[in-house]
Amino acid sequence: MATTSDIKNGLCMKFKDKLVSVIEFQHVKPGKGPAFVRTKLRYIETGKVVENTFSAGHKIDIVRIETRTYQYLYQEGDGYHFMNNENYEQVFIEGKMIEKKEFLKEGINCKIIFHAEEEMPLIVELPDFIEAEITYTEPGIKGDTATNTLKPATIDTGAEIRVPLFINTGDKIKVDTRNGVYTERIKS
């Protein structure tokens, strides 16, 4: 059994019979009274963030997790199929476990975090950047690059993002999946 001195960012543990991940922590030793650890925890199932204070030396139950690379294959109903790149084993993931699923594109490699003892998938992490093709946007005007004005555009995954005025339908772009922002145009 571990104690609060083992807490670090990214640690996965049981908290009130649910799995949580430590987002940030701070060890505090006030002038008067005992030391304590202030934490921000994210519930893995729901994504809800809570703050909690543990007294120094408090026992915590660490959960062993593993990160594996899987390739996204296709969507079926409300779930998604992924394939392990090493042994070609397929796994079905519910849509609620995937953040930013509007950027899922067939063939991209994602990281899936598993509860190691139970072999249960917990979270699907998309790559930070994807390459996408613009399927629809209003036509751009040649030379319209001086301002930082953005227009709406739809990419081939179906997600809607904002792009600069000079981007046209059919252009390939790089998109940051963490915040859904256009990064750059890809020269072909």
Structure description:
The chain folds into 3 domains: 2-62, SH3 type barrels; 65-125, OB fold (Dihydrolipoamide Acetyltransferase, E2P) (Beta Barrel); 129-185, Beta Barrel (OB fold (Dihydrolipoamide Acetyltransferase, E2P)). Helices cover 0% and strands 54% of the residues. It has strands at residues 2-3, 12-15, 18-28, 36-43, 49-55, 59-62, 65-76, 79-84, 90-94, 109-115, 120-125, 129-137, 150-155, 160-164, 172-176, 181-185. The strands form 3 sheets. A 6-stranded antiparallel β-sheet has the order 1-6-2-3-4-5, with no helix packed on it. The protein is flat and about 65 Å long. It starts with a strand and ends with a strand.
Task: Output the keywords.
single chain, 188 residues, mainly beta, SH3 type barrels, OB fold (Dihydrolipoamide Acetyltransferase, E2P), 3 domains, 6-stranded antiparallel β-sheet, 5-stranded antiparallel β-sheet, 0% helix
